[in-house]
Amino acid sequence: MNLVDAFIPIWALTAVGYLARRRGLLGEGAAMVLGRYVFHLAMPAALFLTLSVTPLGSFDLRGLGVFGVSTAVVVGVGWFGAARLFGRKAGERPVWGMAAGYVNSANLGIPIAQQVLHSVSFLVEVVLVQVLVVTPVILTALDRHTDAAGRIRLRRLAGLPFRNPVILGSAFGVVWSAGHLPVPHVVSGTFGLLGASAVPVALIALGASLHSEDARPATAAEIGVIAGLKLVAQPVVALLVGLLFHLTHAQLFAVVVCAGLPTAQNTFIFAQEYGVGEALANRAVIVSTTFSLGTLAVVAALLGPR
């Protein structure tokens, strides 16, 4: 499999969603319904199964730390720059930051890691960091947006994992992994079918959403800045910090490749669920995914195995 093969299913399913909506095969509210299905059912099932069998020890802590720094820097720049540069409101800024720094570590990251890195071990650690650290921060900020006064109430914050199926599914997966608990066959079979639909349905929803605009459509300048942060700034930050931490060449290569992955479609799903920045999110996913084919090829050429 070459690098292009990893991108074709994403482009194809997004195009199918767009065409189905345009031709009326999917109704006006289809993107919202499909997005809610992914957020409330399919994604939690997929995260639980993935994390329940993921060992929580033996991490590459230095490499993971470098990736975490690159994510924090770029998400932070996007989050606060959204207001300074483009006047985005408070509820939209987390989506902006997520679009700039939350990588597609699943459906695109896995084939890219297999093709370029010949291993998915570090990518699994990236998944854990994003799910257990970055996602709760983003969802907490978005949850705050639903409060009329914009407050963070401790009682509401403490109950967020029980109200948010993504966090809840992840938490149960970590508990299962930490306790070395077996997942009953009937549960793994059912959740496996449900979880397997998360990525294709999310991409269909993404494509369908391209047929409509939200209240504040994204400008070309915004998408250009987001794509630059995601595909150039984040891997460059990872490279510089990795050199500072004296990572081995193999570690540095893995970190920079993972940092250079495009925006995750979860960004669109979260934006749609909370009703903020949907157009920004869907265009960021499409544009960053398209151009990442070139930027990842450059990373592979410059830092590949010697």
Task: Walk me through what this model shows.
The protein is an all-alpha fold and 306 residues long. The chain has a single domain (3-303), classed as Up-down Bundle (Na+/H+ antiporter like fold), CATH 1.20.1530.20. 75% of the residues lie in helices and 0% in strands. The chain is built from 15 helices and no strands. It has helices at residues 3-22, 30-52, 61-86, 93-101, 109-117, 121-145, 154-158, 160-163, 165-178, 185-196, 198-209, 220-244, 249-259, 266-274, 278-303. 47% of the residues are buried. The model has no long low-confidence stretch (mean pLDDT 86).
Brief synopsis:
The protein has 306 residues and is mostly helical. The protein contains 15 helices and no strands.
Layout of SSEs?
Layout: H1 3-22, H2 30-52, H3 61-86, H4 93-101, H5 109-117, H6 121-145, H7 154-158, H8 160-163, H9 165-178, H10 185-196, H11 198-209, H12 220-244, H13 249-259, H14 266-274, H15 278-303
Helix pairs in contact: 1-11, 1-15, 2-9, 2-10, 2-11, 2-14, 3-4, 3-6, 3-12, 3-13, 4-12, 4-15, 5-13, 12-13, 12-15, 13-15, 14-15
Rg for CA atoms: 18 Å
Strand content bin? under 5%
Biggest sheet statistics: none
How does the helix and strand content classify structurally?
A: mainly alpha
Compressed to H and E, one letter per element, the order equals: HHHHHHHHHHHHHHH
CATH architecture: Up-down Bundle
Form type: globular
Helix content: over 70%
Total separate domains: 1
The total count of strands amounts to 0
Task: Name the assembly state.
Answer: single chain
Number of H/I helices: 15
> Mean pLDDT, nearest integer?
86
Q: For the terminal residues, how far apart are their CA atoms?
A: 21 Å
CATH topology (level 3) name: Na+/H+ antiporter like fold
- What would CATH call the class? Mainly Alpha
Are there runs of 5+ residues with pLDDT below 50, and where?
none
